[in-house]
Write a structure and sequence with these properties.
Blueprint: H1 2-11, E1 16-21, E2 27-33, H2 35-44, E3 47-50, E4 62-69, E5 75-83, H3 88-101, E6 109-112, H4 116-125, E7 130-133, H5 135-139, H6 142-145, H7 147-152, H8 156-165, H9 170-183, H10 190-197, H11 204-207, H12 219-229, H13 238-265, H14 275-283, H15 286-299, E8 302-310, E9 313-320, E10 328-333, E11 338-341, H16 345-349, H17 354-362, H18 386-399, H19 402-420, H20 424-443, H21 459-465, H22 467-472, H23 488-508, H24 510-519
Parallel strand pairs: 3-6, 6-7
Antiparallel strand pairs: 1-2, 2-5, 3-4, 4-5, 8-9, 9-10, 10-11
Helix pairs in contact: 3-4, 8-9, 14-15, 15-17, 18-19, 21-24
The structure holds zinc ion.
Region (Disordered): 450-524
Protein name: Protein FAR1-RELATED SEQUENCE
GO molecular function, one term: zinc ion binding
């Protein structure tokens, strides 16, 4: 497996990996990510779902993919990990390592399972990111904890579900929750009290004010798990596991290319006469346009009443024709052309809701203000931005360090590689241009005042590239766990033991580990 990682890094300089091992030299935890996923993170790393799954290999290690969503609303991977235990210490190592691989950029929102070890690790590594819990994980426990209420009252399930999903503001949720607790005598229920105290991290009425790219449950992650199951199973040997993972990544990128092609070469069918629809069709990817179009069509079913004007802000009550509830409050600033809605769809998903669209159309605003067209949902989301290039370029230029110059050019080359492999035509075009560029670079004369730097790639990396160093290091497969499955008690016990081993390993073999981790840094 280590050989595989080393080969991948030698073939693709943007490949990143990191390994922790126990005292005997067995693999304990590892993380790896390919160059394409790192580039994708730069464009779509605003929301990340981090979900340890129980799709384990024969060594009973947890498989932990990092997933996000691209401009076609497809699940994409931002690297993955195999963990031998699930302690806070391990999760901290993993999240720090992952952040390092992702150019040090923290996600805006991180969605995880409701787990104490993960929660503490996220708070320490990503203190400024919004942290939400997967609603799916919490909801699946409801029948277990509330089976007695389910059996006693036929209407409970429906009412409880409405309270969780259909309340749009924290105030509405609080009223509905208190009513249900009283109605079914659940005020002292321990589990309900517990999930109520963390309501701001999982109840839609609270989390919808944070951008989540529309990801609120683990359905997305679950579908990714199903995808992996076609390639991986519990008897997959470790060495095959990582190569199979590559096949999953390749297959995902084929799907992305399909959607890119469809967006570029097909024409959207317009269903209304509103100019905003035509405008959106030209900017959004096909999938996001469909979502926007649905909001636009649905907006025609709503009516509004102006409540008042406060400091130039027009406030409206918006509801379905002949139905007073639910009612949404839209605030529109005509001068600045901005609007907010109590449903918070834009804040949560990044697409204007039907309620705002209804008002905007009524006011004859026929062009969407740019602030409502999030770049990450457009067909241009993966285009390298001129300001990114110029800021990074000027930084690299001013620092006069050949290592920084090298890394800057390499980072842009990775982005170029991704775009150059969208089709055979793109590939051949780029290849020819690169040959030409390469020739011109070789012919470019040095000027007398050129500052030639001598701060070459740092010594430790050079050491690590030597074959001598590679030969000195060997990594054993993780020890197999004899029992099938991992009961919680056993897992926790193993976790404690392994974390101690890893800790001891860190001091005993810190030199080795440092070397491996440095080697895994790749290009930044
Ligand atoms: Zn709305």
């Amino acid at each position: 497996m280590l050989k595989y990682f080393q080969k991948r890094q030698s073939d693709s300089p943007g490949f990143f990996y990191a390994i922790q091992m126990d005292v005997e030299g067995h693999l304990a935890n590892c993380f790896w990510v390919d160059a394409r996923s790192r580039i994708a993170y730069k464009n779509f790393g605003d929301v990340v779902l981090f979900d340890p799954t129980y799709l384990t290999n024969k060594y009973k290690m947890s498989f932990v993919p990092f997933t996000g969503v691209n401009n076609h609303h497809q699940s994409i991977l931002f690297g993955c990990s195999l963990l031998w235990d699930e302690t806070e210490e391990t999760f901290q190592w993993l999240l720090h390592t992952w952040q390092e691989a992702m150019f040090g950029i923290s996600p805006r929102t991180i969605i995880t399972d409701q787990d104490a070890a993960i929660t503490n690790a996220v708070a320490k590594v990503f203190p400024n990111s919004a942290h939400h819990f997967c609603m799916w994980h919490i909801e699946k426990k409801i029948p277990e904890y509330l089976s007695h209420v389910f059996h006693a009252f036929d209407d409970f399930k429906n009412k409880f579900s409405k309270c969780l999903h259909c309340t749009t503001t924290p105030e509405e949720f609080e009223i509905a929750w208190i009513d249900i607790m009283k109605m079914y005598n659940l005020e002292e229920h321990i589990w309900l009290r517990k999930i109520y105290t963390i309501r701001e991290k999982w109840i839609p009425a609270y989390v919808r004010t944070t951008f989540c790219a529309g990801m609120s449950t683990t359905q997305r992650s679950e579908s990714m798990n199903k995808y992996f199951k076609d390639y991986l199973n519990s008897s997959t040997p470790m060495s095959v596991f990582v190569t199979q993972y590559d096949k999953v990544v390749d297959a995902r990128y084929d799907k992305v290319r399909e959607k890119d092609y469809k967006t570029k070469h097909s024409k959207a069918i317009l269903k209304t006469l509103y100019p905003t629809e035509d405008e959106a069709a030209k900017i959004y990817t096909r999938k996001i346009f469909q979502k926007f179009q649905e909001e636009l069509i649905q907006s025609q079913k709503f009516i509004s009443e102006k409540i008042e004007v406060q400091d130039g802000i027009h406030i409206y009550k918006v509801h379905l024709f002949q139905r007073e509830t639910p009612t949404y409050i839209v605030r529109l600033n005509l001068e600045l052309k901005n609007a907010t809605c109590s449903c918070h769809k834009f804040e949560f998903m990044g697409i204007l809701c039907r309620h705002v669209l209804m008002i905007v159309i009524k006011k004859q605003i026929h062009s969407l203000p740019p602030c409502y067209l999030l770049d990450r949902w457009t067909r241009y989301a993966t285009t390298e931005k001129a300001n990114d290039i110029s800021s990074a370029g000027s930084l690299a230029y001013n620092l006069k360090s050949s290592t920084i110059w090298f890394n800057n050019i390499m980072t842009h080359s990775l982005g170029l590689s991704e775009r150059a492999t969208r089709s055979e035509k793109h590939y051949k075009f780029t290849y020819q241009k690169l040959l030409q560029l390469s020739k011109e670079l070789d012919e470019l004369p040095y000027e007398d005042n050129d500052n030639v730097c001598d701060d070459q790639v740092n010594e430790s990396n050079n050491d690590l590239n030597s074959s001598e160093q590679r030969e000195k290091f060997s990594l054993l497969d993780p020890p197999c766990v004899a029992t099938k499955g991992r009961p919680r008690s056993l897992r926790m016990k193993s976790g404690l033991e392994s974390s101690q081993k890893v800790k001891r390993s860190s001091s005993l073999k810190s030199k080795r580990e440092t070397k491996i981790r440095k080697k895994g840094k790749g290009v930044r």
